Amino acid sequence: MTKKTIFIAALLATTVVGSMRAQTESGAVPRDYFPKTKNVVVVAQVEESPSDSASTAEQEKPKQDFISRNFKYISMCDWTPGMRFMVLPTQKDLIIKTFAEKKTGNMVSSKSLEKKIMVYDGHGNDQGSLHEQVYFHVENQPNEVYYFEVPTAKFDDYCYGKVGVPALAYLGDVDKAQDLLVGKRVRVLVRDMLQDTGTDGLGYKPVDIGDERRNTIMTITKVGVGTRNFPVKIIVQEANKKDGSEGDEFFQFVTISRTNCGYRSDELEIDDMKLHTFEGSFQLLDDKMSVGREITDAYVGKQFYTFFPTKMRNSSQNAVDIERLTTFIVKDIYRLGNSEIATLTLKDVKSGEEYTKEVSMTNTKVDGSEEVIDELFVEGDPEKIEGVKKANLPYIRRQQVKKGFTEAEVRLALGEPTDVTRTTADIYQWTYMFKNDKSRPFRAVKFSYKTKTVAQDMTR
Question: Is the pLDDT assigned to residue 392 strictly greater than 90?
Fold first, then answer.
């Protein structure tokens, strides 16, 4: 947890109090904007709000994934009447007042407006001020009107920046997330998460979920309001435990569309800020996108074997160890959102069991945890490679080399050599440099020119 994240916790723990005043339109089912994780404990925490410094305008790149299709960034210049926000003041907002009453022109305390839903009514200059105003009314109270005076003379000179209107959390993302994301399965990408503390929902504590939970699949159970900067509270629950009890719940405050969040997209790419974006903390498993006809044709329906040991997930979503040279039929392959990570559905040729495996489709690892598809999988059946004896496969699987092995068997055991040299008139040598194996950085295999087989027992 960063100092910024720690300060946001104290802020909510000390300022977000009382019952929720906000209600939806007449006749609509009220939304629960303040859900909590289960089994909360009483722990005091304190947090700081991120900076609201000014920025230049930025352009949004078109994307294809589920999140970007449904949660679009709306520049303040493009706000339309009826957009809904909730007043969630930071400590700074309690000192520097944000809103004034339209009927009196008097500034009001953000504390008095806390957790009220403000509906955007457009902008103008009804007060005859040197600066234009941005107008809001309290939901279900159309006569309770307030305005935010922009610091520049013209609204158009201000709206292209990142700052927006201080103290306001955009509810459009929260509402849409409640409708679209609850029940979705996600892979949790981070270790640093949060849990509510106290039954009254006045605060929360940081939780390190550990490497054993990071990259596991959890389900989004509830969505609520977070903070102004990170307005969506995503609550996820892990799978049931081995004893049958329910899994724990955790949450993260995130910005999804970035509308009025006060940050540019490049600022949210910083490591300690990326976890406050949806894609930085979660990977939506149901967001299946085509990898393209060329890749699909190259893999689906074909047989591959694993060139090195790896982990896959079985039908119960448990991670299991897979040996080298295990053969599979690829049943399906799809991309996760706009990422370069693909998920393969594989059927074990011998056992018939199905597994899933995430791989990088590029020649490098995307986030450091997944293997590269072309390095992990080799097309074919190791038992049908010419020059490979079935009796030698147990040694080959353990990357051991014995006297009499053919070139094909050595290649299957160790891969392509780094170098090939002639050492004597009767012997030539394959040299291997294993950069990622400190216990065996160098290895030499000597072959007989006459038989083209290993000249001495290299078993280790």
Answer: yes
Determine the Cα–Cα distance for residues 385 and 328; give it in Å rounded to an integer.
16
Would you say residue 386 has pLDDT above 80?
Answer: yes
Are 417 and 458 in contact by the 8 Å Cβ rule? The answer is: no
Residue (of 71, 275, 269, 264) closest to 177 by Cα position: 71
Residue 42 has pLDDT above 60, yes or no: no
Dist CA 115 CA 110 (whole Å): 10
Residue 223, both tokens: 């969505």
Residues in the chain: 460
Tell me how far apart the alpha carbons of residues 296 and 310 are, in angstroms, rounded to a whole number: 22
Which stretch of DSSP H or E encloses residue 70? helix 66-70
pLDDT of residue 157: 92
DSSP state, 61?
A: P
Structure tokens at 345: 């559905």
Helices assigned H by DSSP within 285-406:
293-299, 373-376, 393-397
Q: Round to whole Å and give the CA distance between 103 and 245.
A: 56
Give the burial string for 274-309 (b: 16+ CB within 10 Å, else e): ebbbbbbbbbbbebeeebeeebeeebeeeebbbbee
Nearest to 12 by CA among 194, 267, 182: 194
Please state, for a pLDDT cut of 90, what percent of the chain lies above it.
57
Residue 146 pLDDT exceeds 90: yes
Exposed, middle or buried, 460 (CB in 10 Å: 0-12/13-18/19+)? exposed
Dihedral angle, C-alpha 274, 170, 94, 19, nearest 10 °:
-110
Q: How far is CA 256 from the centre of its chain?
A: 11
The mean pLDDT of 56-74, rounded to a whole number, is 67
CA distance 313 to 315: 7
Please give the span between the terminal C-alpha atoms of the chain, in angstroms, as a whole number. Answer: 45
Q: Hey, where are the domains in the chain?
A: 1-286, 288-382, 385-448
Query: Are 114 and 89 in contact, with CB atoms under 8 Å apart?
Result: yes
Instruction: Give 318's Cβ-side CA count (13 Å radius).
Output: 6
Q: How far apart are CA 128 and CA 132, in angstroms?
A: 8
